[in-house]
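ok, trying the design again with the full structure, not the truncated one.
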């Protein structure tokens, strides 16, 4: 049984889910690796995962499911997000390039490697 065959694979969501579960995509297995993550602060309320992906993907491959925007109870962005790269060295380039980037409202982005505090 290949991808896209069978009664459960009749839409793109099912096909993508099946491929993700197979582990064949680059970055599979590094989704929760904090050593490859960037913490972003200063995002506007209308920021989505898609926006964050667009901003950070040009620096290198992002792990599967590796973009997250933290949200308020109403679903708006609370100003923070995380990006998890496949290659940990890419996050240094992204951090250096985007940390301090000016926002239209005069604020600046804060982009730094994620350091989990215990």
């Amino acid at each position: 049984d290949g991808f896209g065959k069978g009664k459960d694979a009749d839409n793109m969501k099912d096909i993508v889910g099946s491929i993700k579960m197979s582990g064949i995509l680059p970055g599979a297995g590094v989704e929760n690796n904090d050593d490859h993550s960037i913490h972003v602060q200063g995002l506007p309320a209308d920021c989505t995962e898609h926006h964050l992906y667009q901003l950070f993907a040009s620096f290198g491959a992002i792990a599967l499911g590796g973009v997250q925007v933290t949200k308020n109870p109403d679903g708006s962005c609370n100003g923070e997000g995380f990006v998890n790269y496949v290659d940990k060295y890419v996050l240094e380039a992204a951090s250096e390039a985007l940390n301090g980037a000016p926002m239209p409202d005069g604020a600046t982005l804060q982009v730094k490697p994620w350091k989990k505090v215990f």
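Keeping the full-length input from now on. The CA atoms of residues 4 and 11 lie 8 Å apart.
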